[in-house]
Amino acid sequence: MFINVKGFLKDILSSLCPALCPLCHAVMLEAHEYFCPACMQAFEHITPPYCSRCGDPLSGKREKTALLCLNCLFLDDTRAPPLSIRSAALYYGGLRQAILMLKYHGHLYMAPPLARFVKDQYPLFFSNNQFDLILPVPLHLTRLRQREFNQCVLLAQPLAEYIDLPLELDSVARTRHTFSQSVSKSAERKANLKGAFQVIKPAAIAGKCILIFDDVYTTGATLEALSQCLYAAGAKKVSAFTLARARNPVAPKPQQKAELL
After folding, report:
1. What angle (nearest 5°) sits at the alpha carbon of residue 39, between those of residues 37 and 45?
2. How far is Cα 65 from Cα 49, in angstroms, rounded to an integer?
3. Which of these, 117, 98, 118, 119, lies nearest to 109 by C-alpha position?
4. Domain locations along the chain
5. Mean pLDDT score of the chain, rounded to an integer?
6. With 50 labelled, which of 67, 190, 201, 246 sits at a CA distance of 20 to 30 A?
7. From residue 179, how far is each of 66, 143, 145, 195 by CA, in Å?
8. DSSP class of residue 116?
9. What does the DSSP assignment read for 104-152?
C-alpha cells in the first residue's frame, strides 16, 4: 500500500505545531486561512458603492447612485489625467496594526498574509489584461537602507505572479526623501512631493498601462505625484491599488514626531 510520507509528516507537524493567526495568535483550523475568521471579519473591506475615481466608500441614501465623492466632484479636471484608485480595506483596527507591525517594526512574517489578502481582493476591483506592469511605490535610498526592505514590493510580488505581470522595480526612482503626507496640510503635500520621483528608464514606461501599488492611501498626494511623473514619461494609462486607505485622516498633534517615508 502506497503511503504519502510527505503528507503524513505534514499532518503530524500540523497537529504538533498548528498554524496561528499572525494578529491574535488563535489557532487556524483551515489550511487556506492566512488570518483567523475573527480577524478577517473585523477588517473593514471596501465594497460598492465607492467613488469611481478615488475609491472612497460612499455612504447614505443620496450617495448610493453617485459616481464621485464630494472631494472628487470638485477637483480641477484641467490638471493631469485623473487617477483611478482602489483600496482593499480601510486603514483601521487589525489591518492597521498588521501594516504597522510590518512597516515600522520589521515583522516580516506579516508580509505573506497581507500579500495574500491583496491578491484575493484584486479581482474585486480590476479585470484581467487591464495592465502591462505593476509598479510598487519606490522608497528613497536613505529610507530603504534604514528599513532594509520596501513593504510595497513584498506585498505586490505575489499579486504580480498571480496575474502574470512584470513587477517593475528599476524604471522609477524616488529622488527626494519626503515626509509622511499625514503630517502635512493640503497645500504642503504637493510641495512636499514636487520632484520626488524620476523616471530613469522611459522605454519601460512609454505606452504602457501601469498599476501603481502602495500599502496605504492617506492623502493621495504620493500616488498623484507618481502618476503625473509616469504620464510625463509617456504612460498610456495609470491606475493605483492600495492595501488600505485612511478615511478622513486626522493630522497628528504638533508634538507628534513626523516620520519619514
Report:
1. 95
2. 8
3. 98
4. 9-42, 49-245
5. 84
6. 190
7. 34, 11, 16, 13
8. H
9. TT--GGGHHHHHHHHHHHGGGT--TT--SEEEEPPPBHHHHHHHSS-HH
Residue 249 has pLDDT above 60, yes or no: no
pTM comes to 0.84
Task: Give the C-alpha distances (Å, rounded to integers) separating 94 from 63, 98, 180.
Answer: 28, 6, 21
Higher pLDDT, 10 or 108: 108
Question: What is the pairing mode between strands 197-199 and 237-245?
Answer: unpaired
Instruction: For residue 129, give the C-alpha cell.
Output: 489584461
Q: List residues bridging with 133 in a β-sheet.
A: 210
Question: Is a pLDDT exceeding 60 seen at residue 49?
Answer: yes
Nearest to 140 by CA among 111, 168, 80, 180: 180
- Asked if 195 and 175 count as a contact pair (C-beta separation under 8 A), the reply is yes
C-alpha cell at position 130: 487591464
- Across 149-175, b (16+ Cβ under 10 Å) vs e yields ebbbbbbbbbbbeebebeebeebbebe
Q: What is the pLDDT of residue 79?
A: 57
The tens digit of pLDDT for each residue in 60-118 reads 655 445 688 888 888 766 556 889 999 999 999 999 999 999 999 999 999 999 999 99
Phi/psi at 176 (nearest 5 deg)? -125, 140
Which of these, 111, 163, 153, 88, lies nearest to 133 by C-alpha position?
Answer: 163
Q: Looking at residues 243-261, what average pLDDT do you find?
A: 56
DSSP conformation class of 167 = B
- The residue length of the chain stands at 261
**At the topology level of CATH, where does 49-245 sit?**
Rossmann fold (3.40.50)
Query: What pLDDT was estimated at residue 11?
Result: 47
